[in-house]
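Researcher: Go.
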Amino acid sequence: MSPAAARARAAGPAIDIHAHYFPEAYLATLQERGPAFGITVDRSDPAGPAIGMGPALGGVLRREFFDLEARLREMNRTKVGVHALSLTFPMVDWADPELGARLARVVNDALSAAHTAYPHRFVGLATLPMQDAKRAVEELGRAAGLPGIRGVYLATNINGRDLDDPAFTPVWERVAALGLPAFLHPMNVIGAQRLGPYYLGNLLGNPFDTAVAASHLIFGGVLDRFPKLMVCLPHAGGALPYVIGRLDRGQKVRPELAHVKRAPSSYLRRFTYDTISHASAPLRYLIDLVGADRVMLGSDYCFDLGYERPVKVVTRLARLSRGDQARILGDNAARILKLR
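Model: Structure:
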């Protein structure tokens, strides 16, 4: 066997930790109950359903969003071995507590079913009805026992409430006790009134909302209270890695941060990060800043802003050793998600 073949055999599968999925049962429940909350599912296009919030409908969902067989074909084509499946906008936090809990159960059962059907290709990141912390804790306890659930998936804020809100403390306590990683995703982004044009709500709103959420976890003491809590930041950490010096300076000089005893930069390795930077220089900077052991493959599957060839983003990165490639492509995620 050649050395190259031996390395290929030794390496585990590429694991994508930022891969979205809309289970059919979720879409059906949304179609039935969503209109009362201003959310619709339009199935008039034979190409697929479209989820709308308010009068305007979004684009038709690609088949790979809800069809696991179609998804597997794309995963094989792009050489991705495993998807950590997660829900995305509109998630479940917009609903009343009863419906939110019902939707979360539907999603989590579907994530587990996907894993059961394809145990070597899919794991799930559980959705929680965070608008009701008691129900969120209950669903977390139930979902954590389902086959294939390996983490939780939370919005960067819950209907405008930040993640250091005391109401969410029981959820963080339970997440930490279970040893599950928490993956964040932007939602209800800051400055939305100015970000309507040019798709800036996504292009700028998402990365900045990630930085806001991470800052609340640091300055609000959540990471200190739960020292074993693992939190993954999407979109290569959003703006956080690039404004960290400003946060450090603020911690030194501002009275609002007198309670913070450590530099914010000392918390950077408390987070993990995906690779979705869309430019090699920022991704290289991130790896140098936090270490290759804190970065994991992500694609934002299967949105148009996602990576079409996520593995190549890593393998083509200059000055990245084969060992660090292996860590980012799969080893780190396998460790955090307990896949090996």
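Model: The CA atoms of residues 334 and 340 lie 6 Å apart.
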